[in-house]
Specification:
The protein is of the alpha/beta class. The chain has a domain at 14-146: Nucleotidyltransferase, domain 5 (2-Layer Sandwich), CATH 3.30.420.10. The protein contains 6 helices and 5 strands, in the order E-E-H-E-H-H-E-E-H-H-H. The chain has helices at residues 53-66, 77-83, 85-98, 133-154, 162-165, 171-180; strands at 14-20, 29-35, 69-75, 106-110, 121-125. It has a 5-stranded mixed beta sheet with strand order 3-2-1-4-5, sandwiched between helices. A hairpin with an 8-residue loop joins strand 1 and strand 2. Helix 1 (53-66) packs across helix 4 and helix 2 (77-83) packs across helix 3. The radius of gyration is 17 Å and the shape is globular.
Length: 201
């Protein structure tokens, strides 16, 4: 596997930023921001979707122990419903960046949409988590912290199988919604069933 690029600009402090959970029916959207040392290289680090759960946790430990600064931010389902998922995702990124102990001089943003944060220059990069180490690191942190949260709330509502599906619109998740209705963790602004039905809890 080809190693990811360590930076876009050699002379700037760069933070990579990515989010997880944008397409889910339940739970928060989670974003992470990471500033890695210039010398950081990792043989396994990649877009979190390309890694196994075990690999993600192992890589996460290496990221946390090596990063100059990192931060993770959650925006819950109620705020997602208030803002819409795009604005909520970007707000989560802003919160993650704002919580970094070292202020970056440049932001590498995964995706195709971002609102400027403070006066920090940024570059939006589609599939950036497959190109730049700092974005890939952010994708791993966002994914693993969100997965752990969904596994925790699974115990409150086990019928929805969040331990396995993490809130994504799988057939078992949609079936549980149809049978049992929604929970306080569901995103009411999303299409929760293929045929729209008014659901309450």
């Amino acid at each position: 596997m080809e190693l990811l690029k360590p930076y876009l600009y050699r002379n700037l402090i760069e933070a990579g930023c990515d989010e997880a959970g944008r397409g889910c029916l339940a739970g928060p959207v989670v974003a992470a921001a990471v500033i890695l040392p210039r010398h950081f290289r990792h043989p396994v680090l990649n877009d979190s979707k390309q890694l196994t759960a075990k690999q993600r946790l192992s890589v996460r430990d290496d990221i946390i122990s090596s990063a100059i600064s990192w931060n993770v931010a959650f925006i819950d389902n109620r705020e997602i419903d208030e803002l819409n998922i795009l604005r909520a995702s970007i707000k989560a990124m802003h919160c993650a960046i704002d919580g970094l102990k070292k202020e970056p001089q440049f932001l590498l943003i995964d995706g195709n949409k971002f609102y400027p944060f403070k006066n920090i220059r940024h570059q939006i990069i589609v599939k950036g988590d497959t190109l730049y180490a700092s974005i890939a690191a952010a994708s791993v942190l966002a994914k693993t912290f969100r997965d752990e949260y969904m596994e925790k709330i699974h115990d409150e509502y086990p019928a929805y199988n969040w331990k396995k599906n993490k809130g994504y619109p799988t057939s078992d998740h949609r079936k549980a919604i149809k049978l049992l209705g929604i929970t306080p963790y569901h995103r009411r602004s999303f299409t929760l069933l293929d045929t729209q039905i008014c659901l309450d809890f």
